[in-house]
Specification:
The complex is a heterodimer.
Chain A: E1 2-11, E2 14-24, E3 29-33, H1 40-48, E4 55-60, E5 63-64, H2 70-77, E6 80-83, H3 95-106, H4 112-125, H5 141-153, E7 159-163, H6 171-188, E8 191-196, H7 199-205, E9 208-213, E10 216-221, H8 223-226, H9 232-238, H10 242-252, H11 257-267
Helix pairs in contact in A: 3-4, 3-5, 4-5, 5-6, 6-7
Chain B: H1 2-16, H2 22-62, H3 71-111, H4 114-120, H5 125-162, H6 168-176, H7 181-207, H8 213-242
Helix pairs in contact in B: 1-5, 2-3, 2-5, 3-5, 3-6, 3-7, 3-8, 5-6, 5-7, 7-8
The chains are: A alpha/beta, B mainly alpha.
The structure holds adenosine-5'-triphosphate and magnesium ion (MG).
């Protein structure tokens, strides 16, 4: 469980985060939802320690992370897997080496054969077992994200952070990535935090959703509660999509979202 | 200015605390050394051979006094190349080549969040990325400077004998005249200092790139200019203190 308590962060005199308090639970897909420029990425960078909050604290399973000793912070960081908004693969290494890299660096006593098995397992998990020899520049955006996920989960992380895992992907690939993250989270019981502004992900995998608006948390709850949330800013955000409006209408007329999801596959 | 210098020192310090395993850094250092060395052999060879040739021809052109023996030409070519031209010109050429590649490489890693990715994994990114580049440069610069010395003396020999300015025997006589071994030591000290200046300054510029592709280009350019200025100042300071 990750607890965020009263985190403030400003750049110069522009306040970005104005006292965010929330918790991300273990074994769940925790979504951070919010418009562009509301400070979602800044919050994530504060959590993983790439930025230092001005005020406030972040606690990983009871261990304080912010302002703690470097050694303790390093220990926590070794349990963190992160998928960056632009994947951030090491472009001097091929796919296999990218996934192997955290293992090489963080678990030096692992033998070469064990490492190879683990990398092959992770690549298989994301459906890229054939792409090991490719360089990052030869991959499509969706493949890069999947390699990024494989690299993040390779060293058995306890915390997984994904910054917009499905931005810039087509709806089908984007659902596949969402499902992958969801399965991994529940399979290994890890604490996953996903930043998104994709309503589709919200209704698919949002075990716990935090809505950020202008640097503040305005709402949190589950995917079943979000369509009935009574926060005006959130309502405006959600129902800006006509797809969601249609879904809501169907639900009010007595249908259920599960049925709609089943429909297309019946037709085919 | 003072602030930048302070930040530079802190950067160097951050590189040395919490280091990764020695084996990892050593392997990375060898990789970088091979990269820097092999890539630069050709350009260093061409530049130094021509510098030696031009030095020889110009000295021959200026020495018209019949009382000065022709072997003086060889002697002067040796002194000039070993003391000044080989270490300094080679380092300036390498500042352009190695400096821009270090700054460009690190700058790209910064803006594409690869450095952040290392940090999130709990790896000291400046230690992992920068220290091997600096050590790699410190290993290869002196080797390239030795190559440059040999080739510029050879270049002088070829230019001198082929143009008929003197005989081979006169040149070799000049080369062997009152040789001071310390000069070579001094040149190697210079090359180590220049290696450090070029790699550390370029790494600093690249590592702290902010922005996008345009800024990476700008970082490379400033890295090269600042490295060259640092080499020239360092050259003066070393000549003043060690000679
Ligand atoms: N390093 C920085 N220096 C100054 N300002 C910054 C920095 N990083 C972010 N900001 C500012 O913080 C605000 C929030 O940025 P952030 O990247 O968190 O947005 P976001 O919610 O992730 O948006 P998006 O959904 O578009 O990714 C922006 O206005 C941005 O200009
Ligand atoms: Mg963002």
């Amino acid at each position: 469980m990750i607890e965020i308590h009263n985190v403030h962060k400003s750049f110069g005199d522009a306040p970005i985060l104005k006292g965010v308090t929330c918790t991300f639970e273990t074994g769940k897909c925790n979504l951070v939802l919010g418009g562009s420029g509301t400070g979602k990425s800044v919050l994530l960078k504060c959590i993983v320690g790439l930025l230092k909050p001005d005020i406030g604290s972040i606690t990983f399973d009871g261990t304080i992370f912010t302002n703690n000793k470097v050694e303790i912070r390093q220990e926590i960081r070794k349990q963190i897997g992160m998928l960056f908004q632009a994947s951030a693969l090491f472009d001097s290494m091929n796919v296999f080496e990218n996934v192997e890299f955290p293992l090489k660096m963080l678990t030096p006593d692992m033998s070469r054969a064990e490492r190879r098995d683990r990398v092959e397992f992770c690549l298989k998990r994301v459906g890229l077992e054939a792409a090991g020899n490719k360089m990052p520049s030869e991959l499509s955006g969706g493949m890069k994200k999947r390699v990024g996920i494989a690299r993040a989960i390779a060293p058995n992380c306890t915390y997984l952070f994904c910054d917009e895992p499905n931005s810039g992907l087509d709806p089908l690939t984007s659902i596949k990535i969402d499902e992958l993250i969801y399965e991994i989270t529940h399979e290994y019981n890890i604490t996953t935090v996903i930043i998104t502004h994709d309503m589709n992900s919200v209704v698919e995998i949002g075990d716990h959703i935090v809505y950020l608006h202008k640097g503040q948390k305005l709402w949190d709850g589950t995917k079943d509660e979000i369509l009935n949330a009574q926060v005006p800013e959130l309502k405006e955000f959600i129902f800006s999509s006509s797809l969601v409006r249609a879904a809501k209408r169907i639900e009010m007329e007595g249908g259920s979202l599960e049925e709609i999801r089943q429909e297309p596959s019946k037709d085919i | 200015m003072v602030k930048v210098f302070g930040q530079f020192l802190l950067f160097l310090q951050s590189m040395l605390v919490r280091t990764e395993r020695v084996k990892v850094i050593w392997n990375r250092t060898l990789d970088e050394a091979v990269l820097i060395g092999i890539d630069s052999i050709l350009i260093v060879s061409i530049v130094s051979a021509f510098i030696g040739a031009v030095t020889c021809v110009q000295i021959a052109y200026n020495l018209i006094n019949p009382l000065i023996p022709k072997s003086t030409i060889g002697y002067m070519v040796r002194e000039m190349t070993i003391l000044e031209l080989a270490p300094t010109i080679t380092s300036i050429v390498l500042a352009g080549k190695v400096g821009s590649s270090i700054a460009g490489g690190l700058g790209t890693m910064r803006i594409t969040e690869q450095i952040d990715a290392l940090e999130v994994m709990g790896i000291n990114s400046s230690n992992y990325l920068v220290l091997p580049r600096i050590l790699g440069s410190i290993i290869t610069f002196p080797l390239l400077v030795i190559l440059a010395m040999v080739l510029s003396i050879l270049g002088g020999y070829l230019a001198g004998t082929l143009s008929g300015a003197m005989t081979a025997q006169e040149y070799v006589e000049g080369i062997r005249d009152t040789f001071i071994p310390y000069n070579i030591v001094f040149a190697l000290i210079k090359s180590v200092v220049f290696a450090f200046l070029v790699s550390a300054i370029s790494a600093y510029r690249g590592y702290f790139t902010v922005g996008g592709a345009l800024e990476v280009g700008a970082s490379s350019t400033t890295a090269v200019t600042h490295s060259i200025i640092a080499i020239l100042i360092g050259d003066f300071v070393l000549a003043y203190t060690l000679l």
